[in-house]
From TrEMBL:
One of its GO terms (molecular function) is oxidoreductase activity. This is Short-chain dehydrogenase. It comes from Streptomyces globisporus C-1027. Keywords: Oxidoreductase, Plasmid. Gene3D superfamilies: NAD(P)-binding Rossmann-like Domain (3.40.50.720). It comes from the Bacteria.
Amino acid sequence: MRTRRRWSAADVPDRTGTTAVVTGASSGIGLHLAQELARHGAHVVLAVRDPDRGVAAAARIQSRVPSAQLTVRRLDLSRLASVRAGAEELRDRFPRIHLLVNNAGVMWTDRARTPDGHELQFATNHLGHFALTGLLLDSLRAAPGARVVTISSYLHRLGRIDFSDLHGERRYSRYRAYNQSKLANLMFALELHHRLAESGAELASLAAHPGLTATGLGRDFPAPVRRLGSPLAPLFLQPAAAGMLPGLRAATDPGARGGEFYGPLGVTETRGAPGLVRPGGAAVDPRARRRLWEESEHLTGVRLRP
């Protein structure tokens, strides 16, 4: 019996004439996603917190893909004012957006509050992307076959949404806060799919996770973790170019459908070829997803109506 070939970036169809917005595209998974989308003809918007790093990332992509069409836009997901301003710029410049990849994130940060009063990891990883998606919804609806792809983590399986202490005010654990935020990413993607399907919208919502991947997220790790992990990292972490493949497949595979979740197919989903994986139990709880949606609307002031 013939074995099916592994899906790779070579399977991405032509994206000429499409516009893709990738958050956190200045490094890691986001940078590689932006590069592959541009290689296949998309006009890619690098939505980044630091415009200087975004310009450097664009130059790096251009050196590898001379034909790349790239735009850099400032977008700080930890500040709702920045999300609103960035979304307004994007709507004005791009009335049709064919792909939004909610990729940017922070991991295992010290306790910190955003200017809006939210816990930093929950705000950056989830609330900022929730608001951005809602604010760009008209541009996404206007593009035939558009998709929203939200990047979660295999650690969502360890997450729990603590509705009584979303911002870690009573007790804070950098690890618990991260797991909660990545579970929220997946719950949002699945609930968005459910609401889009109910409304009959053509827009699709999918999710992906990169397994264990070497990215810039390690900069926020506590010093003892960095010292212990650095020598062992090559044994456990796959390169960012491999980690971005599940997200790229969710974003571009013609056979992918709304509500699907892509990740590495290896043991424990930490590495391997990109394919369909199953979300953890908490992510498929419809009551919890609805409650998270309502809380997110309240905290962001963005009423997301697919």
